[in-house]
Amino acid sequence: MNTTASNDPDAETRLTFPDGFVWGSATSAFQIEGAAASDGKSPSIWDVFCRQEGAIADGSNGDVACDHYNRYADDVALIADLGLDAYRFSIAWSRVIPEGTGAVNAAGLDFYDRLTDALLDANVTPVPTLYHWDLPQALGARGGWLARDTAFAFAEYTDAVLERLGDRIDTWTTLNEPFVSANHGYVTGEHAPGHTSVAEGLTASHHLMLAHGLAGERIRSMAPDARLAIVINFTPLAPATESDADRIATHHRNNLENRWYSDPVGGLGYPADTVAHLEWDQAEVHDGDMALIAAPIDLLGINYYTREMVSDDDSYELPAGTPVNTMGWEIHPPTLGSLLREVDDRYDFPSILITENGAPMPDRIRKNGRIEDDDRLDYIRDHLVEVHRAIADGCPIEGYLVWSLFDNFEWAWGYAPRFGIVEVDFETQQRIPKKSAEWFSRAAITNGFTVPDRSPQRG
Ligand code: IFM
Questions:
Q1: Which of 66, 177, 261 gets mutated to test ligand 1 (max ligand atoms within 8 A of its CB)?
Q2: Is 427 a catalytic residue?
């Protein structure tokens, strides 16, 4: 796979990825579409949450965002110009079934129909996610993910989407990061709907997983040739000290954040000792639920950004000088490599796709009208080095999707964090590829890149 390295200190090694390795980018509906009330779309819980005083750092919302709803054709042309193989986007449930259940809004589906066809015409594989956090407010008002019925409503919505797009999609992704939906939405309150209850978080987590299981059943029956996937975020954790308290805290947080979703999908159930530790009586778990959730998937989507150190009393602070992004998350590429090997060893899913990886950076240096984001370029390249190593170690990794194609609405942080490989000027809606986009494009087109021989150590 590699050319041979030399002893020359300036020598470079070329990393070539396996034939067919998928290079792509990812976004989500609420973060880029805008058109919050167009063509019959109803408000989602995020439209409502953004209106709450103090919920979003800069007081912004998703009303316009990147105006992708109106600019999708140019955006697809840009993706194609970059030479990317795949584009991951999410579908807004509130465009498709504005009341959450019942009448299907054909005009809402038309948008995803046009987007899918534009991508296919441009030779870019569409990778849709059915749920990336924007629950219709009509369902929010009926209990949101605290209501078991919401999982059945999700299956009904899945039917409607599959009915329209099922003939053209190879891989269906059900949920994006159910941990974040349950935890940030129901436990910490930083995301919609802004609740703060551990008990509610557990209830929501199970209903989300049930929704995945029910939707998976619909996908299998309506599109038997398509692949079924779920996207889970992993933040590997280590104890800040060797104390028992820190080690125990790390163990339960790891179960709750990293294994709570992948273990049930992998047939291992919710981590039993943390269920006991939290005194969760599992009243929400009905007969048959866990089998539905454990129905085999074809592909696991992994989102990875950072690792964390855990101290029992939350006192740990990153040492001064630790490399971080503009949201304060540590930059540590080797952890992606160890995570990939660990997930593969633990679950043996048939295939893995990196569905998100990227970084918000200061984006201060501009030359010839373009942002020179060497820090983001290094971040992406160093993580891809880890992906390459994991593949060499036998992990079945089929591709890497960078988060994100565009600067966009970063949830409670608003528009300040800039994750895009393509800059968006939110005044003019002009899109300008950054230096990292040009690098990533070249890597995609040539299926690899060069690295200095002194590349980072293994994790
Ligand atoms: O922007 C989010 C995305 O919606 C889900 N994964 C993490 C990203 C960065 O925070």
A1: 177
A2: no
Q: Which CATH superfamily is domain 16-452 in?
A: Glycosidases (3.20.20.80)
Contacts of 265 (CB under 8 A, 6+ apart): 209, 212, 230, 232, 293, 294, 297, 300, 347
Which pTM value belongs to this model? 0.97
356 has catalytic annotation? yes
pLDDT of 459 higher than 70: no
- Using one digit for the tens of pLDDT, what is the confidence trace for 31-71? 999 999 999 999 999 999 999 999 999 999 999 999 999 99
Q: Which class for 432: exposed (0-12), middle (13-18), buried (19 or more C-beta within 10 A)?
A: middle
pLDDT tens-place string over residues 117-162:
999 999 999 999 999 999 999 999 999 999 999 999 999 999 999 9
Domain layout of the chain by residue ranges? 16-452
Q: What is the DSSP letter of 330?
A: B
- Asked whether 403 lines ligand 1 (CB < 6 A), one says yes
